[in-house]
Design goal:
2 domains; 6-stranded mixed beta barrel; alpha+beta; two-stranded antiparallel ribbon; elongated
Length: 406
Amino acid sequence: MDLLSTLRVAFRALARNKMRTVLTMLGIIIGVGAVIAMVGIGQGADQTVQQQIANLGSNMLFVSSGSRNLGGLRLGWGATKTLVRDDVTAMVKECPAVAQAAPGTQTSAQVVYGNDNWGTRITGTTPEYFDIRTWNFQSGVSFTSDDVTTAANVAVIGDTVRKNLFAVTDPIGKTVRIGNLPFMVVGVLVAKGQSPAMSEDQDDIIIVPLTTLQKKITGQPWLRFVMVSAKSHSASYAAQQQIEALLRDRHRIRSEEPNDFSVSNLADLADLASEASQVMTALLASIAGVSLLVGGIGIMNIMLVSVTERTREIGVRMAIGATEGDVQRQFLIEAVVMSLLGGAVGIIVGVGASLLIASTAGWPILISGGAIAGAAAIAMAIGIFFGYYPAQKAARLDPIEALRYE
């Protein structure tokens, strides 16, 4: 019997007991649908986290001045004064994996505009900072290198500051007061939201030229941090090693002494988040996969019942020339057809459930072609695995005994 004839017989056999077939397929439908939905939730969450990390900067490393021991009291990062602008110049010139570097320092201050005021972070840096952070402008422009050279009183504000000081006014060209100094607003940054790395509002910030902050506000010539952009994601690890070696040499740190700085690689955070998401996705898929196992057992159970009900039919087929292989293939194909039909409906259910979750709960969902193809492959594998024993049992029936069966 050819494959097409076998398929026709299989569909006729399944159609004889429509309700039983549908109920048997239900386990596969629920299992496949649940796996697709759970994998979609896991992959969507991973994509969201990776996007949030990417928003922090392009292949970014964060170099900060280190801690120091003051009379037994270990101060936090930013306590040393050894990180200076010459270090930044050396990073760009002497580290092949480094594309750009932006020195920076930071303080906090009360900012006043008209009758409104707002306490926020004040960051001093150079124009490269915005490229490294991949931070676009919703209006206005960045300050320039000339502004850094001349220590100009110009400022770029984050979206949170804009909302609190300029709720109904265009901030571009307006003058705010930071401490006792007037600053003209030249740009407003696009909102980035909460930082996944530092758990702070990235938009609650005012950015001014580095020299302006150092000379006119803090009076500190050293740097608290350097934002570094590697030439590629893979090059970020090489850049980290090169920066550490360079700074140890420049700061004359002996081999047995600890660093007076720290270098954090954003790629480590991205990889850690991806691993966590993959584990969670696998866990969700495994829990959902239990229903697939139950569905497979249901297919085996019904196929065994079908073999018992069709014992005389099997005997007649063998009597007129059907081989054991023909009988085995017939029942195996019936199990696979039932499993594939359930898988196809399950895919539709899973995609629909994912879209429903995304629209009602607001969760990020990513439905990939790989998940759908995997679900179809799993459905076929279940049909073959759980249909093999009933098919073997049918093929091994004694034709004479089968013909006598009532």
